[in-house]
Amino acid sequence: MKNIFNKLGVFFIASAIMVSGCDETLTDLNKNPNAINLEDGNVNLLLPTVLGPTAESYLEMGLNEMAGAMQHTQKSGWAGSHNYYEWSGRDWTSYYDRLRNNDLLIANAQDKGFAFHEGVGLTMRAFLYGQIADYWGDAPFADALQGDEGTLYPTFSSQEDIYNGVIADLQAAAALFATGDDTFIDESADLYFGGDMEAWERFANSLLIRYAVRISEKSSSVQSIVENVVASGKYITSSSQDATMDYTGGSNDQWPIQYDNETSSTRYQACATLIDQMNATNDPRISVWFAPVQVRWVQDLLVTGAETQMRVDGVLTDIYPDWIDYRGRTETFTRHYNPNDVTYNDSEYVGIPAGIFLPDVNIYNGNPVGGQGRHNIHVSMMTETFMDGQATAGDMLQSRLVSAAEMHFTLAEMAINGWSVGDAQTHYEAGIEASLEVWGVESELATFLTEVPFDGTVEQVITQKWVASFTSATEAWNDYKRTGFPTLSVGVGAAQPVPAIRFGYGSDELNNNTSNVNSAIENLEITGFSGQLGKDSQYSKQWLLQGTGKPF
Asked: Could you tell me which residues are beta bridge partners of residue 337?
């Protein structure tokens, strides 16, 4: 044992001499020669680790919490966060995980002089931090991602500072893309645009428009930013330029909703708020997004009340209208009712009212087979296009990060407000056209415009933008917070009588970065709906909404 101690002592002394007598550091001496060093990370291998997960999570948010919040869909089971705004505190770990990879991408691109990759990194940093500010408010930003430098408990930057940082990053990114320096681009690594620098410049500038408008009520300086981008023409103006990511249909790369069994994807059902809007305007997208009710009600004064049996092609059948795979079926399924005795919605497309109690969701409109997570045969579900278990890549099944429709509707609103960004009606109609193109019903444009002729109001523009945001409802949610449109009525099952406007901070921060997160919570403004959660409520106002009187 003594010899072991002596050898250890000699080793420590020798190590001390080597460290003090050479330029090499202890880190150098202990470097694994077979390991991949962070500074040697291949930027083209880093790109997909940022682009893929970012697009996936953005889509999943747009199909779930935000689709419920903005009343595109409702769920018949596991519906708390979707139908009722039960948004308890949530962690942002996945966002900062991507930001760490992205930070390495930026650093390596700067070190090697790769303008394209640096521009992508700056764009994605802005996209990710923009979402963090949208969802939570104040967050680690200036002091974030510095764990290696010893900053384990970062302070929170204000939401205002984060938005300003987002805008600065996007301006810098657009300038890099404008250089045309395409050094070391691997087209296959770019999951959005295949290495097209001009497309990335349009994407960065479109995000710049998005966030400049986002803060426009709190900052007068952003108007010129938007006007300059529009004057340049270098932003997304046609649906063919949309920032999207395809799904390959592989086992690990499928559309998030799968039409696999009765209690899984079939819980996604149309919300009456959206369906009623689309029915009222004969919107051609309704048949692309939603299936007709599986069993339609038919008025019949010869029956008493409502039939318990189902009819197939008009003939009564003993088939109980339980779980039937209606895909590919050519028969017409109906039930008859007497409108003098009972009231049912006998439209071809029917939605569930937002926020009604879960048992009522399952039996709404006379559904006889209600049960948690099951389909409602008298309510529209999403179409097979979105729920087929074999869903693969396609123009419709994409994560859509920014669209031409969004840009044109945004600029129509700003034109109404007096900004020099073109004609409001032209942008409004171009926004509708771009959305119809995405969903394959562009041939219906002229007819549909007669249903929704431009009336010069911001409410109409935002309402049509909300409809067009289907599968990308996050932006509709941000517009709602900023403008109060569209007008939404919240059901009795919701936590409060208004939509939620933020996420509460998660347990990771509350337990481990307590002092800093508490300082951020103090910057929130309690509203009449904050309730027992106090300032860190999903109904408290961030800086962006304070003093605006919106959305409530």
From this structure: 299, 306
Distance between CA atoms of 247 and 255, rounded to whole angstroms?
6
Q: How far is CA 333 from CA 46, 102, 107, 378, in A?
A: 52, 53, 61, 10
Mean pLDDT per block of 10 residues along the chain (552 residues) reads 35 35 44 53 94 97 96 93 94 98 97 98 98 98 94 97 98 98 97 98 98 97 98 98 87 73 67 98 97 95 95 86 64 95 98 95 88 79 73 71 98 98 98 97 98 98 98 98 96 94 98 98 97 94 97 96
Helix axes 473-483, 458-468, angle to 10 degrees: 160
Stretch (H or E) spanning 243: strand 243-246
Give the span between the Cα atoms of 250 and 253, in whole angstroms.
5
Closest CA to 389 of 258, 272, 482: 258
Residues 6+ apart with CB under 8 A from 12: none
Distance between CA atoms of residues 417 and 427, nearest Å: 13
3-class SS string, 194-213: CCCHHHHHHHHHHHHHHHHH
pTM for this prediction: 0.91
